[in-house]
Amino acid sequence: MARRAGLLTGRQIVQLKQCAFSVSARNMTENVRIETDTFGELKVPADRYYGAQTMRSVLNFPIGGTPERMPEPVIRAMGVLKKAAALVNKEYGLDARVADAISQAADDVISGKLYQEDHFPLVIWQTGSGTQTNMNVNEVISNRAIELLGGKLGSKDPVHPNDHVNKSQSSNDTFPTAIHIAVARELVENLKPGLKILYDALAAKSMEFQDIIKIGRTHTMDAVPLTLGQEFSGYVQQMAFAMDRIDAVLPRVYMLALGGTAVGTGLNTRVGFAEKTAAKIAELTKLPFVSAPNKFEALAARDAMVEVSGCLNTIATSIMKIANDIRFLGSGPRCGLGELMLPENEPGSSIMPGKVNPTQCESITMICAQVMGNNVAVTVGGSNGHFELNVFKPLIASNVLRSIRLLADGSRTFTANCVNGIQANRDRIAQIMNESLMLVTALNPHIGYDKAAKIAKTAHKEGTTLKASALKLGYLTEQQFAEWVRPENMLGPK
């Protein structure tokens, strides 16, 4: 069928883009080299290790620029799995010289050195399998290994990106493996320590405030007393559960897809390759990675990442509640609740002199909102695993990793710049508590609910105290009121 006049083929578009790149390269420098893939030749910068497939992706997906690049933890994780695969392939007969060069080149990826030197330019908005990032890593490791062996960059000799670096692998099993490695490491090495810092700070405040009796609030309205320490103990438990939730999802994250190759069957691998590479990855990372029990699930679904995102969403929900409570309890300083005094970190207004705002609470609640939004994207992406392969993996990986990083950094910052410096305003707390009508609840066992309600309603209507209302109505004596309405006796079961 003849093509409609004026329309370009995909290859013609790439050629035009390559011409534009060539002109740009000539304007800056003539230092380029020719790399090839199955589509033909492309010019790439001579000082970059990536090859034609990476360059083709750069040309085809100019979306978002540097901020949208594949997250560094994914690239580092790809280095880990490529090193592990090379070492295991060496056991299965891969030339030792080639395997060792791949392993050494992979170390430069694992360390982050090559990421920082701009050898991984691809954005997350590419093929949904992550194939182009897998090939980016293969090409970089291949050329770096060739350089280490004294060869010519771009020659694919003696180290080929597909035949050697990608040996016994497919993008369909390597990319999900990299996601799991990256997410596991970030959960264990970044988020859990960050949450522990917040947990410890809240626990310290709970102990510090354990003897301060205050009025409780339900539906944002006055309720019965509790201690400020008890109130903070709820926050402490939320953070304890947050860390427990991470531990609960990790077993599925530790299950790796590597060895499933294209559709889960393990085509072009060797018996035992999956188990050996998982063990090698565990050795390299010091984390208990294992081979996934079912590679079809490991390739076609991203349920473990949806589960992690749900865990992060729950943690964000917890932190949102804690930060909002602290923000409102610290409102004022003259016309709010004013029960807490928050650290004053910076000026709060460009027009109102002397105003100071709860900026740390605002920052971390925005983080929580972003994590909740990320979870929606991960949920949509996870639900789109069609047949034997999920093709929303870069989106899922980037959103989960961003949520982890935001919560980890936010927890540390919120702790250092807010929680550690919180002070109780004891005078204000006592004033509010003693004015509360809900202390009348202590009279229920003595005079009954209806009479107690009458006392509270009368006091509210006439603007008097509970004691004055009770004595006026004749329901009890002054001595009985003093004996029965004691906030310190209202803090737990009898």
From TrEMBL:
Pfam families assigned to the protein according to its UniProt record, in alphabetical order: FumaraseC_C (PF10415), Lyase_1 (PF00206)
GO cellular component terms listed in the entry, alphabetical order: mitochondrion
E.C. designation(s): 4.2.1.2
Stretches assigned to the Fumarate lyase N-terminal domain: 40-373
Domain Fumarase C C-terminal: 439-491
Single GO MF descriptor: fumarate hydratase activity
GO biological process, one term: tricarboxylic acid cycle
Highest taxon above the source species: Eukaryota
Gene3D superfamilies membership: Fumarase/aspartase (C-terminal domain) (1.10.40.30), Fumarase/aspartase (Central domain) (1.20.200.10), Fumarase/aspartase (N-terminal domain) (1.10.275.10)
Keywords: Lyase
Family the entry assigns: Belongs to the class-II fumarase/aspartase family. Fumarase subfamily.
HAMAP family associated with the record: FumaraseC
Identification of the protein by name: fumarate hydratase
Organism name: Phlebotomus papatasi
